[in-house]
Amino acid sequence: MKIEEWSNWETLGIDFPIHFTLYVAEVEDSVNNFGNLSARLEKSIMSKYDSINSINGENNSLKSIRFPIKCEMVKWDGWRDVLKERFDPEILNFESRNGQYAFYILPGSSVNTRVLVGNQRQAIIEFKNWNIDFVEKTISNIILSLFLPEQAAIKKFILEPSADAKVEIDSMRTMKYSPMYQVTFSLMNGDPSSLLVDWDIERAVDKYLKPFVDEISIISNMTVESQVQHYARFTFEPRKNINNENESFYLTPELLPHFINAAEWNLASAVTSYPTLNFILYVPSLEQSPLYIQDSKGNVVNNNAFLIPRWGGVVVENPNRSTGSHTFTFGELKSAMSIFIMQLRGLLG
Hints:
Elements: H1 9-12, E1 14-15, E2 18-25, H2 37-56, H3 60-63, E3 65-66, E4 69-76, H4 79-84, E5 100-107, E6 114-117, E7 122-127, H5 132-159, H6 163-173, E8 180-189, E9 196-199, H7 201-216, E10 221-229, E11 239-243, E12 246-251, E13 276-283, E14 291-293, E15 305-308, E16 312-316, E17 325-328, H8 333-348
Parallel strand pairs: 1-3, 2-4, 2-5, 5-7, 8-10, 8-13, 9-17, 12-14, 13-16
Antiparallel strand pairs: 6-7, 11-12, 15-16
Helix pairs in contact: 2-5, 7-8
Organism: Acaulospora morrowiae
Keywords: Endoplasmic reticulum, Glycoprotein, GPI-anchor biosynthesis, Membrane, Transmembrane, Transmembrane helix
GO cellular component, one term: GPI-anchor transamidase complex
C-alpha cells in the first residue's frame, strides 16, 4: 500500500461549501411568505443534485467530493433604489469572498424574468411572477446551471490528474538524487515482555539486497546498517474488530500518517550528510495482535506494508508467540526484503 492512498477522496471526503445570501425585496402588499425560502431552496437544490448524480452514475469517489449548499434570507428594504439606477448590480456594494454569493430578488413589471450578474459574485433577479414557488424553482435552476459545470471540472481535476500532475506526485514520493544513501533496517518490537524478537538481517541483506545495490552502484552507492528496538509503542490505538470471538486490529488509512512515533523511536542513523532511507519490520504488542493494514475500502492489504514518501517503508509481521520468542530467519525475511527492495526502487525513482 502506498501513502498516496491515505488521501483517497472516498475515505476522507472533501467539502467545497457554498453560501448564498438571498436579499428578498420587502413588499408590503405581498401575499407570499418568503420566510422559509432558504430551507426550501436548500432542499430543492440538494434533491436536484442527487437526481443528476444518480442519472450520471457517480461512484463513491465522486460522491466523496461534496458541495454543500447553505442559504440565508435577508429582508431587503432598498430594492426600489436598484430599479431607479437602471438595474445595475454594481451599486449594491457586495463584498465577495470565496464560496459566498448574493442574490438580490425583487418583483418586476417586465414580461420576462430578468437576471443580471455582477463581477463580485452577486446577481439581481427581477421576477415577472412574484410567487414563492416560482421564485424557488427559478433560483434553484439558476444555481444548478451556474455551478454544475464548475463542480464537474473540480471533480475531474481532483480525480483525473493530468500527466503533469502525475509527474508532480511521483516527484513528491521519490528522494532527491545523491551519490550516496544511508539505508537503515529496524526491527521494532511493540512489547518485549510478551515476545522477544531477533532477526538474521545480515544474511538477508547480503542475499536479497546486495544484488540491487550492485545494480545501481554505477550511479549511487549505499551504506547499510540495522538495529533492534524494543517498546516501540504507538501514539494512537489501532481500530479493534471482534469477529467470532477472535480479536484483530487494523491500521486504517487515516492512522498511517501517525505510525512513526518520532518522539520515542530512535531511528537516527550514524551521523552522515547523505540522505537516509528507513525500513521498519514492525511486531505489534500482544494487546494489539494480530495487526493488519487496511486500504481505503476496508480490505486488508495483502503484503501488510506501506510506503512513506521520501522516508522509507514499513512491513508489519504477526509472528507465532507460543514460545515467548521469535527469530526471523533468513528464509522468513525473504518476503519482507522483497517488499523493502520494491519500496526502495520506488523511493529512488
